[in-house]
Automatic annotation (TrEMBL):
The lineage of its organism: Bacteria, Pseudomonadati, Pseudomonadota, Alphaproteobacteria, Caulobacterales. Residues 10-332 form the Enoyl reductase (ER) domain. It comes from Caulobacter ginsengisoli. This is NADPH:quinone reductase-like Zn-dependent oxidoreductase. It comes from the Bacteria.
Length: 334
């Protein structure tokens, strides 16, 4: 089978396409013909060498494909089923615990930049009905992160106000999920063009953070002084102060990314005076993924896909990701 592999010490010029033996499904496993994957920042961290992996690691945490064989004892799936990977294959349900957060594909184990994978059946869910493989492959990391942030942890409800940052996969899914839940959405971005596209997706209020440094205060004004109920925080230290400023009393900040810095000053007095909850979010469980799939089917949500590359174009796909010119998800299809 054909795979993409990362040669140590990593870098986009260190991703090679090579042939490896096709795996077989052992007891409890399924053999999946992978048809698509999608890029996340976590995947870039692996291929760039920011996350150290063994030489020759097959990257990509997300994958969708068709079951070609089932191992002994497997009853969850049958040959021909269309399946979707889980980011944490050992996290069935409940809250995060260290054993549940181990074994991430493309990082701690070989991932989905391969034509075939053999993995435990419990590491997969069904795909949404009527979705293509590349559409489904956008869900396991980005969409489930947004789902856990807003639905599981922030527990948004109709009438709440949600703030999203930027136009990456998590942020766009957060916008779509918030609107489906009956919320008002405040979205930030760096360009008028991207803000216009966010408006087309349903954003109620728009802020260009390049023109408005204190966008947290701007969000407070846009909400009539009420503030937002939930923030999907993908910037980290560089944006946390403004996220706290945007929150109303009892606001919830889901800390997902560190794109604007891994450390920095936080206005703790303002955070505690507002009774703000700041919670780290690392994707979610298989149970949450199954519940999310049911919800997006019921609401007719579809992913926003920026572009699609073949497996041989994986380095170009990551280069496009790092240009930050994309809007939505970047996919691999093979």
């Amino acid at each position: 089978m054909k795979v993409a592999a990362v040669k140590s010490p990593g870098g986009l010029d260190r991703i090679v396409i090579e042939d490896r033996p096709k795996p077989t499904a052992k007891a409890g496993e399924i053999l999946v013909r992978v048809r698509a994957s999608s890029l996340n920042f976590h995947d870039f961290a692996v291929v760039a060498g920011m996350i150290r992996t063994p030489d020759g690691r097959i990257p990509m945490s997300d994958g969708a494909g068709t079951v070609e064989a089932v191992g002994e004892g497997v009853t969850r799936f049958k040959v021909g089923d269309e399946v979707l990977s889980t980011f944490f294959p050992n996290w069935d349900g409940g809250g995060p615990q260290l054993p549940r957060l181990l074994g991430v594909p493309g990082d701690q184990a070989d991932g989905f930049a391969a034509e075939y994978v053999a993995m435990p059946a419990t590491a997969f869910t069904r795909m949404p009905r009527g979705w293509s493989f590349k559409e489904a492959a956008t869900l396991p990391c980005a969409a489930l992160t947004a789902w856990r942030a807003l639905i599981v942890e922030a527990r948004i409800k109709p009438g709440d106000i949600v703030l999203t940052q930027g136009t990456g996969g998590v942020s766009i899914f957060a916008l779509q999920l918030a609107k489906a839940a009956g919320c008002t959405v405040v979205s930030t971005s760096s360009s008028a063009e991207k803000l216009a596209r966010l408006k087309d997706l349903g954003a109620d209020h728009l802020i260009n953070y390049k023109e408005e440094d204190k966008w947290g205060e701007a969000a407070m004004k846009l909400t009539g002084g009420r503030g937002v109920n939930a923030v999907v925080e993908i910037g980290g230290a560089g944006t946390m102060a403004q996220s706290i400023a945007a929150c109303g009393i009892g606001g919830h900040i889901s800390l997902i990314g560190v794109l604007a810095g891994i450390s920095g000053e936080v206005p703790t007095a303002l955070a505690f005076s507002k009774n703000v909850c700041i919670q780290g979010i690392t994707v979610g469980s298989r149970q949450s993924q199954e519940e999310m799939i049911a919800a997006i089917e019921a609401n007719g949500i579809k992913p926003v896909i920026d572009s699609t590359f073949p497996l041989e174009g994986i380095s170009a796909a990551f280069a496009h990701q790092m240009s930050q010119k994309h809007f939505g998800k970047i996919c691999l299809e093979f």
